[in-house]
Amino acid sequence: CKALGESLKVNQSLKIFNFEACYGIGNDGCKVLADALKMNQTLTSISFACCRTIREEGWKALAEALKMNGALTSINFKCCDGIGDESCKALGESLKVNETLASLDFSLCDKIGDQGCRALADALKVNKVLKNINFSCCISVGGAGFQALYEALEKNQTLTTLGLQACYGLGAAVFNALCQRLETNQALTSISFAGCECVGDEGCKVLSEALKINQALTSIDLSSCQRIGDEGCKALAEGLEVNKVLKRLLLSRCERIGEEGCKALGQLLKINQVLTTIDLACCERIGDEGCTALAKGLEVNQALTKLDLAHCEVGEEGCKALAVSLQRNKALTSLTLRGNNFHDGGIDELVKMLKLNTTLLKLDLGYSGNDKVVRERLKENAVLRSVTIPMVLSNPVLLESARPPRDV
Q1: Is position 177 within any domain?
Q2: What is the pLDDT of residues 172-196, one digit of tens each?
Q3: Are residues 8 and 93 in the same domain?
């Protein structure tokens, strides 16, 4: 580290440095790097992910350096379990004066508690530069810490991405308060509550009301929020009938969502012309009826480009309904049906659809029926011009020679 530190003091070209899982770096090494950062004005991104031997003393030294550094825009502290409340207090003071840092990742820093989160939240009230902050799996942060974050969002109009995946201390009351804050906050464009146990149907109703007003949020991740069921899904659909900006709705592994929730989403697709991605993977209660409801929406919708129905217990009837809808739909470019229960009839209808639909670029049918039958049907109809991997069924298939969009 001493040699690297000396090099960084004079280096004028290096922009990215990765120290991930460098267990040999301790407090002394971190202090050397911190001294180098006081002088280096070219490095823009540094990762300390899984540097578990650096403790509070080392991180404090780095925080001091950030008061002087005017180049770094991104720091990754993921899984650095030496970062605790005292480190966050020092980093919070630095954020009050630092004018370049745009992204901080504290995911899996399980020693950060309420005091640390509050210190960072207080900094957000002043900081006008930070755009992305990730607290995912910070399991020691409780209601008081997240309450401070909620208060910070009242003043902060710079932060665009907030990661709160699997933050078990969030609590229903603070989740509801955060959702209500979205009614006035017009900066956040992406927020993740994936895996937050407190999020259920009632929370979705609060979120739905916020979505009717919010004009900034483009992506919401509620994946693995297993208390969300049909009522919550209906509420979200109601909010999105009014909302004109949200593009990505992620509900994978919300296992209580079934037929009724899909009916609401199907109706939404007939109205909403903004949503581009819906992920319902592993919602096993959807079945044929839920899939058919979504398919009816797709017949009209001309905005959605990506739909994931992997492992949703969709059978032949649901498959046929999708095939019919995709003969009319000219927007969908990616469809994932992996792990469902199709029979020959449903597969035949899909193959016929592919002759008429010239928009779909990616179709994933892995483990959804008899692999041999599907390969034969596709080969017989000669619809594939570009196959990424010879094993058609267990891998995604590109259906057109054109290059797929970046988000597919």
Answers
A1: no
A2: 999 999 999 999 999 999 999 999 9
A3: yes
Residues 283 and 404 in one domain: yes
CATH number at residue 241: 3.80.10.10
Domain assignment of residue 194, given as a range? 182-248
Q: Report pLDDT digits (tens) over 159-169.
A: 999 999 999 99
151, 122 Cβ separation under 8 angstroms: no
What's the structural domain count of the chain?
3
The reply to whether 315 and 395 lie within a common domain is yes
**Are 263 and 369 in the same domain?**
yes
**What secondary structure, in 3-state letters, does 165-198 show?**
CCCCCCCHHHHHHHHHHCCCCCCCCEEECCCCCC
Q: Are residues 273 and 402 in the same domain?
A: yes
Tell me if 86 is assigned to some domain: yes
Per-residue pLDDT tens for 193-209?
999 999 999 999 999 99
Which band of pLDDT confidence, cut at 50, 70 and 90, is reported for residue 398?
very low
- CA dist 319 → 15, 31, 218, 325, 358 (Å): 49, 60, 30, 10, 18
Please state whether beta strands 397-398 and 362-364 pair in parallel, antiparallel, or not at all (unpaired): antiparallel
In a domain, 175, yes or no: no
What mean pLDDT do residues 48-62 have? 97
Longest dimension (CA), the chain: 69
DSSP state of 229: B
Is 78 domain-assigned? yes
Range list of β-strands (E), 197-332: 219-221, 248-250, 277-279, 306-308
How would DSSP label each residue in 92-132?
HHHHTT-SS--EEE-TT-TT--HHHHHHHHHHHHH-SS--E
CA distance 324 to 380: 20
Q: Write the pLDDT tens digit of every residue in 322-331.
A: 999 999 999 9
